[in-house]
Each structure stands twice: as C-alpha cells, then as structure tokens.
Amino acid sequence: MLLPVSIMVLFMQRYMVALRRYSLQLLNATLVIPEIQATTRAKGISPKFKSFSYIYDEDHFIHALSSDVVIVHGLPKDLREARKKIKFPTLSPRNSATPEYYIEEVLPRLVKSKVLGIIVNGGNCLQSILPASLEEFQKLRCRVAFHALRLRPQIQALGSQIVGRLRASGRPYVAYHPGLLRDTLAFYGCAELFQDIHTELIQYRRNQMIKRGTVKEQLAVDSVSRKMAGLCPLMPEEVGLLLQAVGYPPTTIIFLAGSETFGGQRMLIPLRAMFANLVDRTSLCSQRELFDLVGPEDPRTPDLPQPPPPKSEKQLIEEWRRAGPRPRPLPPPPARPFYAHEKEGWYGWIGENDTEPDASLIEFRRQAHQLLWDALDYFVSVEADAFFPGFHNDGSGWPDYSSLVMGHRLYQTPSGITYRPDRKIIAALFEDVNDHRYHPPRNWTIAAREHLNRSANVEGVVSSAMLSRPVSFLAHPLPECSCSTSKSPAVEPVKDSNGRFLFGGEEECAGWMARSPAMASARNNEPQIEDYEDNLPEEGSSSDMQESDRSDSNKSSEQDEEMDLDD
C-alpha cells in the first residue's frame, strides 16, 4: 500500500497504519507491510532501512499483530510484476469513511481482484468514533497506534540519549513544537503575518491549494482576523512571553521539536533572547550520531554549474578566424553562476522564476530525512516534562504533529504537564498589550498564567476533547485506549453533550498491558512530573541562577553564532 506524495509528516503515517489495520481486520484481508512514499521515491537513501522499516520496527509490528491479522513483508513475485504493470486496482478512501464503506464498496473490489492497493490521503480514512458494536475494533486501533507501531531501535536509542542529556543538569525540560508549516499557514491564510518573500511563498502555496480544490476561499484574506479567530499558529515570540507569564525562568531548557520551522532561525530569535537554553537535536547530537541514524547513503550529485568543456587548439584558431575584423569590443563578462546553496531550500527557486520547480532528487532525500527527525523529536517530546504546542486542534481532521504528541502523552503519562492553549483567547490577550507586550501589567500576567494552568489541568483535557475527539481519536485516545489497574486512582467520569465518555469509567487492564513498556514508562515518569509541578518556578524566581545554568546559556549562545538565519 502506497502513501501519497502529500503526506510528509511522519505521524500521519502512524495514524494511517492504525486505521488501515482496522480495515484489514474488518475485511479479513492480508496486510502487506505499508510503504511510506517519502522514502520509496527518495533515491540513494540507506538500503539498510527500507520504507516502513526506515521509521518503524518492522519485526515488532508483525509480531504484535500476529494474532489479529496476517502480515507479509511483500507481494509474491507474480503479483509484484502485476503491480508494476498496474494490473490490480487501487483506491483512496474518502475522508472519515464509515465501516459500511469498507464492507459495501471496498470488500467487493477486493474479492473480485484478490489484491487491492489503498492510497491514503490526509490520514483520515476512517471515522474517529466507531459505533458501540465495534468497540473491540476501536481498542485494536489503540493497540496498533501505541503498542504495535514502535520506532526502530536506533531512533529510540538516540532519543533516549537526547532525553538523558536534557536532564543531565537535574532540571526538567519543556518540549515546544512551533507548528509553523508552510502548508498550514497557506491553508488558513496566515501569509500577512510574515514579510516579503515569506508572504509570497505562502500565497503561492495557497494558490495551488485553491486550484486543487483543497481551499474553497479566495487567495487574499485578512490574516489578522484569522489570527484573532485562533486559526493561525502562535509565534515563537508569543510562546516565550507566555512561558514567562507562567513563571519559567530564563534558564529553562526548551527543546525545539519538528523538522520544519517556516522562516528559519529568524523566527526563533525573540524566543532565544528570552530563553538562551533553546536547543534542538543538532545541538544535542553530533554529526556522527545523526549520520548513523540515517545510515549509509549514495553520494549526492553536486548541483554546481559545470564549466564548459575545454576546446582544442584547432577549435580556438577556427573561432579566431571567424571572429571578424579587428579591433573588436570586449565581450560582456559572463553571468554570475547560481550555486547549490542558493538553489536549495525554501526560497531558492523564487529568485529565478515564477513557478516552483518540481522536487529534485536531493529534495526527495531531504524529505525522507525529515521523517527521521520528526520521529526523533516525537520521542523526545512524548518523554518531556512539559509540552507546549504552537498549533493544534485545528478541527480539519488532519492529525497534526502537536495533537498526536499530546494524545500520546495523555495515553502514556496523563499526569504530565501538557499545555492546551486556546489560541483565540491568547490572541485577545496579546491584542490588549500589543504596544507593551514585553512589559505587561500584572493583571495580564495573572490572566495568561491562569489560562495556561487551566489548559494543563482536567478543564483543558475536556475542552480539547470536545474539538479533537470527533475528528482524530489519536489526539484524544480516551476512554477507548485507556484502562484502569488496581493502583489507579479513582477518577470521576466526564461525558460530552451527547452522553459519550470523555474519560473515566475505564475497564480493568489486561495482563499484557499491565506489563507493557508504555505503562512502565508512565509509572517511572509520574514522580518526576509531580515534583516538577510542585516546584514550578514562580514569577521573579529567575534570580536564582546557578553557575551550571550560565554555562549552558553560554554554550547555546556560541552555537547560535554558527547558525544560518535562513536555515
């Protein structure tokens, strides 16, 4: 089964595999290990890790689901040839398809052709909430998402090392995902929040979405009104001011997650000025460690302008004779060549033409690498002492990165600090202090702190569930993916307006789940989270800075000098 070109974020793959696994159980079909197209089209990447195994532990996936569905590594030889000749059908399930769709439309085609390829667009090929009669299937989706889909050991090992280095000073760390993605900004019309070339690039992508029918609106929209409505991501500067309002000191360690921050390091300058210990995987890992994670690859073809081939003496003499009478004016100097570093990246093409070129082989390989970096940062974000999303719960049904991290944290460490800010409320708060946001009045600081503290508590879980659960069960995996043990504290059940449980009232956990690594990790992490919450720094505590904090800050500043602001 092939995943589409448009699916570039790793954990949409997690969402799609979980849904596809349910479909196979319902149809009584055999699953061929899924293919992630971002890796299959990237030529020259490591042959050691192919497609699905580039990110996930393939053997564990097969073993974990061996009692539920038959899984094979690949098609038989005759079917592989038929696939190359496109002799069996493929289909793309519609958004939030019902179980009846798979029974009435997919199953007859599968029975007729014996082989059926499914291409999943957007990651939402099955409705989030299944009927009560399919409760067991819903639980199996949870098992796939949180137990069968496990990152390959190399990613987990390096992720554990990063977590250890972040906690080496004895202090907790905050994971932050900006959510500044070009597609997101274009879809919601947030171009005017940027300047110059950034705006042009966002509008170009939005125009493409309008032509494809993804966006049903006009090209030009009021980005300020969109931001006030909570549709645009929070800027890193705003996140820094909110963390200050909560009481985090300037020495707080903040881990920057995600493989893409549209606008590059320039967007992070205000946040880095407030929190000097802003780090990412590149500042915590050596080049050798990252190279080992990628694996051996074929050398990339240099994209430098090649000099013209040398001419023979006979050709030079012939050209001299055909040159005409003398004296002649000197020819104009040759045009300055465009080098590789000017062509690659998010802005390279716009200086040469008005049409964005097709992705090059180097770009395909970079997109495959982004899956690895997203996977690595996902692991670190789930294990973080606190998580702050720049963009989540957009209501589109697409499983955005932050929502998946928040859902996994809710499943694995529900006592952990996970902020769920309401961007509409936050935008109104910043509108009140737009002219003096760096020196806000105390009542503004108290209001911002109270909102964020409520968002990290049960009230935030409930309000977030109202938005996310109907469109993405992985963003709020309760109560279907939860259960209780003998040591679980009593929790009062909470229901939505339709009478469905949001959490509480869970059944007793099965024996294999009580012994699972996920619950063991949760038990190990709970004391650390509680200590962190009790010792959350209050306002004005930043003066208690230790020498180790100063050294970390100096180290981070030295690394910043070498960063490319347009990276």
What does this structure look like?
With 567 residues, the protein is mostly helical. The protein is built from 24 helices and eleven strands. It has helices spanning 10-27, 37-40, 58-64, 77-84, 99-113, 135-148, 153-166, 182-188, 197-212, 223-228, 236-246, 269-274, 281-284, 287-294, 313-321, 340-343, 361-382, 401-412, 423-432, 442-455, 458-468, 511-514, 517-534, 547-560; strands spanning 31-32, 71-72, 90-91, 117-118, 173-177, 253-256, 278-279, 386-389, 417-418, 494-495, 501-503. It has a five-stranded parallel sheet. A two-stranded parallel ribbon has the order 1-2. It is globular, with a radius of gyration of 26 Å. Residues 1-22 and 517-567 have low confidence and may be disordered.
- Give the overall form: globular
Number of helices: 24
Mean pLDDT: 78
* Helix share, percent: 40-55%
What gyration radius follows from the Cα positions, in whole Å?
Answer: 26 Å
How are the strands of the largest sheet arranged?
7-6-5-8-9
Poorly predicted ranges (pLDDT <50, ≥5 residues)?
1-22, 517-567
How many domains make up the coordinates?
3
Determine the structural class based on helices, strands and strand pairing.
Answer: mainly alpha
Separation, N- and C-terminal Cα atoms:
34 Å
Beta-strand content bin: 5-15%
| Extended strand count | 11
Main sheet overview: 5 strands, parallel
Pfam families: O-FucT
InterPro entries: GDP-Fuc_O-FucTrfase
Membrane topology: Single-pass type II membrane protein
Biased composition (Acidic residues): 528-537
